[in-house]
Structure to design on (429 residues):
């Protein structure tokens, strides 16, 4: 872990030093900004530009949007000498994984309060990884119950820090520090724009789960005086992803900074600064939609393979689908858009191999999430020795039939392929 990085906010507003907690967790800042020219060509764009902010590479262990928030939140946790962290999410929560990894690195304990979401391969591997990185798992029937249980646990264990869903204030309660992480990230992007690495985007596309990432970027744009509009692609619940909550979360963070350094302009995010984009989530959080799966596959083929990233179907695939629809509309001719990549792109398969996929080690309540099978070696009962050498074993890329020296007969392959396709049927939307 790097030890010298300081937030750009400290550099711009030195009075914040000592008043806003921070610990460096992002060795790879500034994260690259790249142009997606193959995608532009594929979409037949002429003057329009698509950039990507590669937060998938913030760290070499686990990338994505969480560590931006954690640099500030864990700054507070360490300052307050907490013993551990409690957090919440669905059974495939990326925040839970980031939290398990970070707490282990920092020698803290981690308890995850989880609620069901549609079971995918991502969910199955995530649960094993939480356990691998030392988190204790608790299952509830719903998000509301998970919240209740976590509050009770926090009451009994006051030396634990309770991090809300997504590290974002919920109904106005909770720390603004995660949002501040993305205000700082927006300052980083502005420095890159000033260096000529990218042009000022007309629109930034960002997935909206707890809304903290998008609200932080929006607050950052406001503070920097940019006219860039944030398009928040709704992937979670209406109760969280709505205009009033965006304003609340963004302005709470701006006030937090202004209170600590009154020289920071007292600006306010308004309804004109962002748009909530509906129609991409599917019938529930975590559902794999056809559009999302297509966006994941297309962008991997055109860009990700070469640049080393792959989107996910819950957040970034849906966001990319929305971006592609937007930029190909006649009325958006000539626009520049930036896709904020919030999903980890580091390979976690080596860790997963170490778990040997032994889900029976997890608390009993979680075993039911392994009834569905998403991998060829589970369906065909591939020999253990062969499995270990096979690139399809425990790989995110479940399309095993692409592997040329697979010893399965054509009949076996066909059977497994059909079973897999049924398991990952995408919702049409
Ligand atoms: C990959 C990914 N992208 C985006 C988000 C959404 O971020 P936020 O909760 O700040 O809205 C999440 C949240 O879990 C995520 O895991």
């Amino acid at each position: 872990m790097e030890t010298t990085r300081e937030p750009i906010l400290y550099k711009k507003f030195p009075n914040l030093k000592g008043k806003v907690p921070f610990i460096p967790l992002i060795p790879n800042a500034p994260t690259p900004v790249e142009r997606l020219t193959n995608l532009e060509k594929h979409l037949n764009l002429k003057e329009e530009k698509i950039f990507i902010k590669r937060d998938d590479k913030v760290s070499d262990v686990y990338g994505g949007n969480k560590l931006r928030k954690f640099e500030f939140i864990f700054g507070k946790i360490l300052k307050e000498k907490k013993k551990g962290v409690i957090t919440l999410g669905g059974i495939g929560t990326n925040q839970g994984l980031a939290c398990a990894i970070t707490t282990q690195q920092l020698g803290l304990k981690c308890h995850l309060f989880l609620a069901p979401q549609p079971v995918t391969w991502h969910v199955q591997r995530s649960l094993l990884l939480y356990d691998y990185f030392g988190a204790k798992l608790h299952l509830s029937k719903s998000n509301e119950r998970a919240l209740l249980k976590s509050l009770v646990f926090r009451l009994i264990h006051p030396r634990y820090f309770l991090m809300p869903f997504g590290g974002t204030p919920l109904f106005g309660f909770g720390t603004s520090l995660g949002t501040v992480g993305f205000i700082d990230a927006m300052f980083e992007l502005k420095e890159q724009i000033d260096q000529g690495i990218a042009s000022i985007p007309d629109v930034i596309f960002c997935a909206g789960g707890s809304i903290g990432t998008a609200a932080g970027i929006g607050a950052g744009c406001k503070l920097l005086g940019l006219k860039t509009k944030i398009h928040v692609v709704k992937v979670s619940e209406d109760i969280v992803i709505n205009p009033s909550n965006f304003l609340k979360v963004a302005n709470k963070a701006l006030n937090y900074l202004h209170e600590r350094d009154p020289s920071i302009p007292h600006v306010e995010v308004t309804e004109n600064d962002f748009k909530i984009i509906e129609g991409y989530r599917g019938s529930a959080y975590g559902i794999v939609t056809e559009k999302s799966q297509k966006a994941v596959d297309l962008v991997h083929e055109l860009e990700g393979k070469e640049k080393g990233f792959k989107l996910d179907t819950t957040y970034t695939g849906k966001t990319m689908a929305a971006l592609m629809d937007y930029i190909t509309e006649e009325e958006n001719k000539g626009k520049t858009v930036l896709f904020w990549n919030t999903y980890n792109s580091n390979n976690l398969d080596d860790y997963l191999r170490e778990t040997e996929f032994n889900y029976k080690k997890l608390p009993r309540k979680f075993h039911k999430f392994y009834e569905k099978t998403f991998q060829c070696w589970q369906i065909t009962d591939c020999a253990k020795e062969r499995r270990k050498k096979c690139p399809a074993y425990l790989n995110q890329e479940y399309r095993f039939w692409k592997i040329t020296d697979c010893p399965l007969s054509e009949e076996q392959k066909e059977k497994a392929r059909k079973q897999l396709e049924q398991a990952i049927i995408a919702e049409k939307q």
The chain has three domains: 8-65+177-340, 68-167, 373-423. The first strand starts at residue 33 and ends at 35. The chain has a mean pLDDT of 93.
